[in-house]
Design goal:
The chain is mostly helical and 216 residues long. It contains 8 helices and 2 strands, in the order H-H-E-E-H-H-H-H-H-H. The protein has a single domain (1-214), classed as Cd81 Antigen, Extracellular Domain, Chain: A (Orthogonal Bundle). Helix 1 (2-14) runs antiparallel to helix 3 (36-63), helix 3 runs parallel beside helix 8 and helix 4 packs antiparallel against helix 8.
């Protein structure tokens, strides 16, 4: 059940409309940075393997097989080690993920402002960011005034004042998007780790109980 829950959460994060709209973008021959998906794929793999290993543990417990329970314990140790490694990787790269996406957005924004932007897809990339995240412009002075003079890049608001004071810059929105998603991944990873620890303890207790009972 835990594996199924983790797999479901991971697939939901993988196919979330906001992240897929942004991370599938392509600026010329440059693909949007999709380092974020590495953590998602690890969660998908862990969830799928946990479901399989769970059946192995249940069958081993029903059959009272020390071999199956030992294999179950070994698989759990390997999964736990992989999850800890993925958690360390995610903690180290959590700021870099949003930074890479912001740099990609800034490059597209600069191309969209250039006179020859009609020859590339910078404008389309920027509009996708703006529509998906409900934002406009980067985190600088140009980003603040962009909604006032580039209605082709920013969605049209009811009034100029509303545009200036209610439209968030895209750097802030990108940070919020990925920090929220990474927060969910972190919670899922902690829940899985706690469940794994209990599984390892209980499987060893059961295995030792079967071994001791076989003596008598």
């Amino acid at each position: 059940l835990a594996g199924g829950i983790i797999l479901g959460v991971a697939l939901w994060l993988r196919h979330d409309s906001q992240t897929t709209n942004i991370l599938y973008l392509q600026l010329g021959d440059k693909q949007a940075p999709n380092t974020f998906y590495v953590g998602i794929y690890i969660l998908i793999a862990v969830g799928a393997v946990m479901m399989f290993v769970g059946f192995l543990g249940c069958y081993g417990a029903i059959q009272e097989s020390q071999c199956l329970l030992g294999t179950f314990f070994t698989c759990l140790v390997i999964l736990f080690a992989c999850e800890v490694a993925a958690g360390i990787w995610g903690f180290v790269n959590k700021d870099q993920i949003a930074k890479d996406v912001k740099q990609f957005y800034d490059q597209a924004f600069q191309q969209a402002l250039m006179a020859e932007s009609e020859t590339n897809n910078g404008k389309a990339v920027v509009k996708t960011f703006h529509e998906t995240l409900d934002c406009c412009g980067p985190d600088n002075a140009i980003g603040v005034i962009t909604p006032l003079w580039r209605e082709d890049l920013c969605s049209k608001k009811d009034s100029v004042l509303k545009t200036m004071f209610e439209t968030s810059n895209c750097h802030k929105k990108i940070d919020e998007l990925f920090s929220g998603k990474l927060y969910l991944i972190g919670i899922a990873a902690i829940v899985v780790a706690v469940i794994m620890i209990f599984e390892m303890i209980l499987s060893m207790v059961l295995c030792c109980g079967i071994r001791n009972s076989s003596v008598y």
